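re: ur question from yesterday

yeah so i grabbed the chain u mentioned. its 176 aa long if i counted rite. heres the sequnce exactly as i have it in my notes:
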Amino acid sequence: MNTVIKKGIQGILPTYGPKGENGIYIYVSTGEEIYMDKSMRAFLAFLFHQRRIDLYALRQWTSSLIHRRNGLPLVFSRDLVLVPVKVRKPIGRTDGSEGYLSLLHIEDVCEKDDQTMILLKCGKEIKSLHSKKIVERRVLLAQFMLTMYEKEALEWEGFSFAYKDDLYRPKKIHLF
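ran it thru and got these structure tokens back, copy pasting raw so excuse formatting
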């Protein structure tokens, strides 16, 4: 799985395997499609574990900023912000219907034959069950969360530089 992450994730989509089990397709920067016999939840848990991120805290932070509880973008880093998109109708109660696409790799959102299509930079077209308006809103929310992530990173970096100068009396930092 580490090699998949190093190849650059452009999208993670849920699918049903040959025996009806949950699996995922991972689209990477080279245009390669990789099938894994894991559920979306298990793969995301692995990603969070690798990056040492608390999913519960991330969802609370995101929810507090955009005032939503469902369909939240996942911010792993500046390079990996995942936008949730509904890509299938679930069969079972525990089946997930949403895939995740990398914000930085979404090239275009368009409608073809009354279906919303999302074009990735690797050339893959992903069909969404959401309307074009909903997909565009989710992309916009992901862009907002990336901006907030970068703002917090700047504040922390600025604090650490000021704190380094005088260990006991850190200076106040004004970014804007």
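noticed a couple things. The mean pLDDT is 86. also The longest strand covers residues 9-16.
anyway ttyl
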